[in-house]
Specification:
single chain; alpha+beta; D-Maltodextrin-Binding Protein, domain 2; eight-stranded mixed β-sheet; about 45% helix; globular
């Protein structure tokens, strides 16, 4: 047992020790999560048990879409609610605006006091326009360019050529495709997804400005669509969407040379996507000096539970998010990058990653996390994302005019707002 891991909860532990074994009664704390965020909870169970032997943690895990659908229903109906709810960042805006989660900015939580302990972009993603805080950040996904070094060496392409600019990335892709037969990236829409997040400032929105002003028919989105179209025209994308069987097969067969995602992708590649490619991958900064976050996970506490259960849930959430050693333990077990800044000073961050050929890539991800802007999240972001993606598909597959596509996307989003 490492005392430092338990330090935030030592008063509770001491109180229990003084009380002795007067009561054998246990309390169950139900935590709802999803793969592989649930690995954090699995790692925490024996450690939390040492400071709260009177608490049994029940982990309920469903696939990510099923989990969030179930949580949406539970919050709406007030039934089958867990005590602690794991939330992936893509669902956070909707949950934050639902009113079904405790406002952690208010007493007895007062969680705004911890804000400076986390990367600056984490808290805004969990806050409503009214300033309520619906969840605490647990991990983040600093954006990176993962590439097959063996394929780049075969093509004679350097990392600098790939990352210098978006145009040089596309040019490098042409060389890779010509000399190795591999596609540069799975799908051209990845370029759009990254570029629209580039060069934004703290407090700006991705799709919406002040008063829900729709921002998609702007030069930023115009350039993003142009880059995606250029990649498609150059024939360097495999036209395969992420998280499909074809996507995974592309990694296994060496049919794809790069992918741009959060640092956690290295763990997925090593554990189940393409373990046989060990040593062939490397991580680089995103092209053109871009900084963006992919994914990230949070813990929320449902309002409609008893005060006693909410108090215990907060104790567990603090243990998972504010405890440096627990954050590092989650990194070790689940390859998730800590949201807690103090945890990223741990020597484990400096260890080489065998799957990445011994590269100390976590140092790179730490530097990226410090540069990611704190964007304002809007509950309508998923709607805007769907509209923009649908129009980009028409540009890529049907050669639709880009200006027309963006105008149509803006119109579709405004209709949904009304």
């Amino acid at each position: 047992m490492r005392p430092s891991l338990l330090s935030p909860l030592l008063p509770t532990a001491l109180a229990l020790a003084c009380a002795g074994a007067a009561s054998a009664q246990t309390t169950t704390l139900t935590v709802a999560s999803f793969p592989n965020f649930d690995e954090h909870v699995k790692a925490a169970i024996p450690l939390f048990k040492k400071v709260r032997p009177d608490v049994e943690i029940k982990l309920v895990s469903l696939q990510i879409a099923d989990h969030h659908n179930a949580m949406t229903t539970a919050l709406a109906t007030g039934s089958n609610l867990p005590d602690v709810m794991g939330i992936e960042i893509g669902y956070l805006g909707k949950f934050a605006e639902s009113g079904g989660l405790e406002d952690l900015a208010k007493p007895p939580y007062n969680a705004l006091q911890y804000r400076d302990q986390f990367y600056k972009f984490t808290y805004p993603q969990a806050m409503s326009k009214g300033g309520s805080l619906s969840a605490m950040p647990a991990d983040v996904g600093p954006g990176a360019l993962f590439y097959r070094k063996d394929l780049m060496d075969k093509a004679g392409v350097t990392e600098a050529q790939m990352t210098q600019s978006w145009e040089s990335f596309i040019d490098a892709g042409k060389t890779v495709k010509a000399k190795t037969g591999a596609y540069m990236l799975p799908h051209a829409n990845a370029l759009m997804g990254i570029y629209i997040r580039s060069n934004l400032k703290d407090g700006e929105g991705l799709f919406f400005g002040k008063n829900n002003q729709v921002l998609v028919n702007t030069p930023r989105f115009q350039k993003a669509f142009e880059l995606a179209k250029a990649a498609r025209t150059a024939g360097i994308d495999g036209k395969v969407n992420a998280w499909t069987n074809e996507w995974a097969e592309g990694f296994k067969r060496g049919a794809v040379a790069t992918e741009m995602m959060g640092g956690w992708l290295a763990g997925h590649l090593a554990s189940w996507l393409a373990p046989d490619t060990k040593g062939q991958w490397r991580s680089a900064s995103l092209p053109n000096g871009a900084f963006a976050a992919w994914g990230g996970s949070y813990y929320g506490i449902p309002k409609k539970n008893s005060e006693a259960q909410k108090k215990l849930a907060w104790e567990f959430v603090r243990f998972m998010t504010l405890n440096k050693e627990m954050q590092i333990e989650s990194l070790r077990k689940a390859d998730s990058f800590p949201a807690l800044i103090a945890a990223t000073s741990d020597p484990f961050i400096d260890q080489p990653i065998e799957f990445l050929g011994g590269q100390k890539a976590r140092q790179q991800w730490r530097a990226a996390a410090a540069r990611i802007p704190a964007l304002e999240v809007n509950k309508l972001d998923p709607i805007a994302q769907a509209a923009v993606t649908a129009e980009l598909d028409k540009v890529l597959d049907q050669n639709k005019d880009i200006k027309k596509a963006l105008a149509d996307a803006k119109l579709a989003i405004e209709r949904r707002i009304r």
